[in-house]
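Handoff note, outgoing to incoming analyst
You'll be picking up this chain. Sequence as last confirmed:
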Amino acid sequence: MLMLITGNVLAQASDQQKLAELQAQLKQRQETLKANQANAQELQEVLAESERQIGQAARALNDTQQSLSQNQQQQASLREEQQALKDAIVAQQSMLASQLRSAFMAGHYDYAKMMFYQQEAKSFERVLTYYKYVSRARKAEIDKFKQNVARLEQVNAELEQKASELEALLARQQNQKSALQARQQDREQTLARLNQKIASDAAQVRELQASEQALIEAIEQARRAAEQAKQKMAGLAQSKGRLPVPADGKVRRLFGERRQGQVRWKGIVIEASEGRQVNSIASGQVLYANWLKGFGLVTIVDHGKGYMSVYGHNQALLKQAGDKVAQGDAIALVGQSGGQSYPNLYFEIRHKGKALNPASWLAL
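Most recent structure output, in case you need it:
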């Protein structure tokens, strides 16, 4: 146990040192960008790298939070078992004490005495059988008592270990939160510089068009990969109007509305809390999981028969290309990547590359 505690302390010190190094590194990056007067393309590249790093940090934090939850559940289960064992041991102690008192009062404490005081063979045989039965039952209770005592000691040791692990997980969680916060601040500074570079309407339209083209190319690439894979999946046609909303939040039905200039919305936006789970609307296979200009961290899921769903602006991606998913599986975390100013999920449904109105497909 001492070695475990010492290891936890050393790990915490190492994490804190890494955090300090990260904060210094990010500060230096912002100072360099400011001094060099970086152009929009350079800032886009820095933003992309920053959001990818945020995704990795957020995913690590999410894993730690799940471990914390699992640890707490295990401790609760162990405490229940601990109390049940204590109750059983007390009850067994009382029962064994009662049996010994009864045996003593009845004279069963002397086996030889029982044998010599029986005058009839039938009576002797009956008493002997009874005595053996009582002895076996008592031995079984004693064995069970010993097993419960041993298990109680084991449970107590496991609880101590889980408590130590919990302490380490909490320290890791705090460091991961601090690292994530540092990266988010770095992203905000980079994004502010980028927005200054593309402040004009014309520049913003060009950015949106470039972003849309990047998404179209990613979808086309995913579509070709799906055709080559020739996976047999059901598609979405049979579930039209009944598909679950991919994230809990306020749905903005933007499909078809003018976004800026001639650029129109091809999907919807779901305003949700940062870090909330994004779930696959149906079973399928992840064909794309990466960063895209204007859309940030994006996951594209193939559902078969030409149908795909697109999830953008994520904080972190929980699945990789090639992973199979079931309906409702967590595939990402809500974020504001892609240069967003508030956390949301950008969502599309496509059929053979053509954008469909998600409002007609989801159970809104």
